[in-house]
Write a sequence for this structure.
């Protein structure tokens, strides 16, 4: 199944892996590092709008960009499994972080 | 609540539920012995449109009303964790769903026949649908909890 359709799917799957990881990292990072959250708010008018735009637009731009390159970066089947684990671990990281913030962290 | 917020919140919920049903339908179709590619194409397209609609309308309500009028009520009430945990998790994990929905759309439209014919591809696509369904369920549950805590 080595054709342009597979190449496109490899590209967008890789993009999804990168963006979902980045979204989780920026989400937690913005809570721990106030200047990052402030930058998102001042650049995009609201920190969540910034994360929204960066995640979906980033996903599309990276996916299209990789699709236009002549070579693929990996095989689709293992990448889909990497995506599966990325989504699972990123979701658990976000839930775990906010659980910690809500119930365990001591806020001054 | 003004009518524009009532409308956007209602569209957000309805579109979100349609998206959840769509993800579930994809999961159940892939889990069955015979999956209809036509059904998967239509459902994945509907799911993608629904999640994008829920995203924009929810974002409008969240940015313009939730932060200033709803969040303070929840945080001052009996269940401040409804915002601190469930809203915070919901608003960020939700960002994964349009990405996953787009990927399902591409999978079924670009190589749907191969996905259904190859058990390895079908299995991993099913696993992704199961995970997306669980995420969608969590987000729905969180939304109900948040709404209840704001009463």
């Amino acid at each position: 199944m080595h054709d342009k359709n597979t190449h496109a799917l490899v590209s967008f799957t890789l993009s999804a892996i990168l963006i979902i990881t980045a979204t989780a990292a920026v989400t937690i990072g913005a809570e721990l590092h106030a200047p990052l959250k402030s930058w998102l708010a001042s650049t995009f008018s609201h920190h969540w709008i910034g994360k929204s735009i960066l995640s979906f637009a980033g996903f599309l731009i990276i996916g299209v960009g990789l699709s236009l390159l002549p070579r693929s970066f990996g095989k689709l089947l293992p990448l889909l499994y990497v995506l599966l684990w990325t989504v699972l671990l990123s979701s658990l990281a976000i839930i775990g972080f906010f659980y910690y913030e809500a119930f365990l962290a001591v806020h001054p | 609540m003004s009518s524009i917020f009532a409308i956007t919140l209602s569209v957000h919920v309805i579109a979100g539920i349609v998206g959840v049903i769509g993800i579930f339908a994809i999961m159940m179709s892939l889990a069955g012995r015979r999956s209809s590619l036509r059904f998967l194409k239509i459902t994945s397209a509907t799911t993608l449109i629904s999640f994008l609609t829920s995203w924009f309308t929810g974002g409008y309500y969240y940015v313009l009303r939730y932060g200033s009028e709803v969040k303070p009520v929840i945080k001052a009430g009996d269940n401040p964790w409804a915002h601190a945990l469930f809203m915070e998790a919901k608003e960020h994990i939700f960002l994964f769903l349009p990405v996953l929905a787009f990927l399902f759309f591409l999978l079924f439209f670009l190589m749907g026949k191969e996905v259904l014919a190859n058990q390895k591809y079908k299995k991993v696509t099913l696993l992704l649908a199961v995970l997306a369904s669980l995420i969608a369920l969590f987000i729905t549950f969180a939304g109900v909890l948040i709404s209840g805590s704001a009463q």
